[in-house]
Design goal:
It contains 7 helices and 5 strands. It is of the alpha+beta class. Strand 2 (162-168) and strand 3 form a beta hairpin.
Length: 210
């Protein structure tokens, strides 16, 4: 145990150890208080502050990246947690085996460690998709959003995925969505959800006027 602590807090592993402890603290807070930080908002805020950002090419790459890591199907913090813990395990073991935990050479493990960790995350997270699909973000049974109205918090288009905020029984729920037609729907406009995508990763919505 003493050796593990020594290697974990050695210069080459210090950053990952602190990150792992922060992630662990996050989950303890979620478990014991129910408080949840929606990291996915960072993406939404970026789009809202600069709606012109995101041409078709970069949007396609970003969407492919999100889909590759099941973002939208699983909580972002869940994905980040697997990546961080995997990187920590890899770095601690590799630096210990090669005796480079106290050397700057240990920092070179970060890049291959990140790549391997992302591949591990891809495999480990997959079985949780079906389980999570049965529940909403608070662990309650899934809600049927078809016919519900909400506000756009990240612009949506036919080929542009964004986010909708829905007020439901005093709760605020955010879901990913695209426009069901060619119309680009801007921030703060009201939409009605008409369908769910075939892969159940997002909803199709249309501008709604009272």
């Amino acid at each position: 145990m003493e050796r593990l602590l020594e290697i974990s807090f050695a210069p080459a592993n210090f950053i990952l150890t602190v990150l792992s402890l922060l992630v662990l603290l996050y989950w303890l807070i979620v478990i014991f208080t129910g408080f949840d930080i929606d990291v996915a908002d960072m993406d939404a805020d970026t789009d809202v502050s600069n709606p012109e950002v995101g041409n078709a090419g970069s949007q396609g790459f970003w969407n492919a990246f999100l889909e590759f890591f099941y973002i939208g199907e699983l909580p972002v913090m869940f994905i980040i947690s697997i990546v961080v813990f995997s990187m920590w395990l890899i770095n601690v073991n590799v630096t210990a085996i090669f005796g480079i935990a106290d050397s700057l050479l240990g920092l070179l493990i970060y890049i291959p460690g990140l790549i391997v960790s992302m591949l591990i995350t891809k495999v480990v997270a997959r079985p949780f998709i079906k389980i999570y699909a049965q529940f909403n973000h608070k662990g309650e049974k899934a809600i049927d959003f078809i016919g519900k109205t909400g506000k756009v918090i990240a612009p949506i288009g036919k080929d542009k995925i964004g986010q909708i905020e829905i007020q439901l029984e005093g709760d605020v729920i955010k879901v990913y969505a695209k426009s069901i037609d060619d119309e680009l729907i801007k921030f703060n406009e009201t939409v009605i959800i008409l369908e769910e995508s075939l892969d159940k990763k997002y909803y199709l919505a249309q501008k709604f006027q009272l």
